[in-house]
Design a protein that fits this description.
Pfam families: DUF4032, Kdo. The chain is of the alpha+beta class. It contains 10 helices and 16 strands. The protein has 4 domains: 102 residues, Phosphorylase Kinase, domain 1 (2-Layer Sandwich); 129 residues, Transferase(Phosphotransferase), domain 1; 43 residues, no CATH class; 91 residues, no CATH class.
Length: 422
């Protein structure tokens, strides 16, 4: 598989181009199966047998999902310059652990059999169990869902800004969402206008946030207009401007909590621990902090904060990979099991018992044909929530096996397959 050529070079004239010379592919994951895709055709003309009918967000480019061997990839036509720029940015974000789609390759020097040059393409891996925001509103916008989406977007923007990433095109459309224990986890899906810096200026952050305010309000307006045209009776009144204000307020709260310098007296040293615990509750770990003393006072400023506090803790205890809210919920159930049945037992041992006595039986009780509908941690979270509701209604504890059976019959069986939806 060849390395990418200089994007400024137009390639040989059509008359001099050897028959069958089609593409150059730059990739960190060499896989000849990519060469089997019909790169000699414009993306809009790719045959149905190659494509996957996943829901697509709104994009200024032509975007399609396609089969590439055993996996599904998203292909976006753009210029060679922007494809390489976005590929490089996404690779760097991947190494930094930022929630974003995984870049696969850049395809350039595409020509039709007649010698007509075609746009370059950026190829990214399809993010399993993810949805564009519009796919979450098949029955019309609901206030609670909209609020959870903008909270997830605000958290993503904060993570990006802490990493020195200036987005330049913040919107719900440029984001994918995964369910996360009643909330959502947001992933960056379009980094074409993004830039990575050692740190961002207040002006850069402010521009991104104001752009988010404007774009989100407009997107919610479009949702409401579309719902009205389709005759949906909206269960909630959604105010686009209140939603966009909530986004900004959530961002500012998180940014302040994660970065603000605190000053307190020497006899209030407990506030250092309290600040760290507060950040942990928000889902962040403090990797590095600055502590200075002056005239009997302490100044504390977190310098490096890392998202995924509960995710890392759950993985350490159980080996499970989960989103932050899922991890928080499952950790709570592990702690409850230890308190009720194994008081005084080491946390690591309780976690292993929980995997054997709770997690495994729930997943085994879900029919194999339905396990692709949601990620396993989300299924377990929903079963635990369903058991609580059934117990409350019955006025007594409902056994987990009974709760799983009722959940599968009444809830999961009617859900779409979110790993490969539509």
């Amino acid at each position: 598989m060849k390395g990418i050529l200089d994007p400024r070079s137009p390639g040989p004239p059509a008359g001099d181009r050897p028959p069958g010379a089609r593409v150059s592919i730059q990739t960190a994951f060499p896989d000849p199966v990519l060469l089997e895709l019909p790169w000699e055709k414009p993306l809009e003309q790719w045959p149905e047998e190659v494509l996957v009918a996943f829901p697509r967000g709104i994009s200024r480019h032509v975007v399609r999902f396609a089969h590439a061997g055993p996996k599904v990839v998203a292909v976006k036509e753009t210029t060679a310059h922007y494809a390489q720029h976005e590929y490089g940015i996404l690779r760097r974000l991947q190494r930094m652990g930022i929630p974003a789609v995984v870049p696969d390759s850049v395809v350039t020097h595409r020509y039709t059999p007649e010698g007509e040059e075609l746009p370059a393409a950026l190829v990214t891996d399809h993010l399993s169990f993810s949805l564009p925001y519009r796919a979450l509103f098949s029955a019309g916008p609901r206030a609670e869902t909209v609020e959870r989406l903008v909270d997830a977007l605000a958290s993503l923007i904060v993570q990006l800004h802490l990493s020195g990433f200036y987005w330049g095109d913040v919107s719900l459309s440029n984001t994918l969402f995964r369910r996360d224990a009643g909330a959502f986890a947001a992933y960056l899906v379009d980094a074409e206008t993004g830039e990575l810096h050692p740190s961002l200026s207040p002006g850069q952050r402010a521009y991104d946030v104001e752009l988010a305010r404007t774009n989100v309000a407009g997107e919610i307006m479009d949702l409401l207009a579309g719902a009205a045209e389709e005759g949906h009776e909206l269960a909630d009144v959604v105010d686009p401007f209140e939603v966009s204000d909530r986004l900004v307020a959530t961002y500012e709260f998180l940014w302040r909590e994660l970065t603000v310098e605190e000053s307190f007296s020497m006899d209030e040293r407990w506030r250092v621990v309290e600040r760290v615990r507060r950040l942990n509750r928000l889902g962040f770990d403090v990797e590095e902090a600055s502590l200075e003393t002056d005239d009997g006072r302490i100044r504390l400023r977190p310098q490096v904060v890392e998202p995924g506090h509960h995710t890392r803790r759950l993985q350490r205890l159980t080996g499970l990979t989960a989103h932050e809210n899922q991890a928080r919920r499952l950790l709570t159930d592990i702690a409850q099991l230890g308190q009720d049945l194994y008081p005084g037992l080491d946390e690591e041992l309780v976690a292993q018992l929980w995997m054997r006595e709770v997690f495994a039986p729930i997943m085994e009780a879900v029919p194999a044909t339905m396990r692709r509908k949601l990620e396993p941690p989300e299924i377990v979270h929903e079963v635990l929530e369903h058991r609580w509701f059934l117990s409350e209604r019955a006025g007594k504890d409902v056994p987990t096996p009974a709760a799983v059976r009722d959940y599968v019959a009444s809830q999961l069986s009617t859900r779409p397959d979110e790993r490969e939806i539509f």
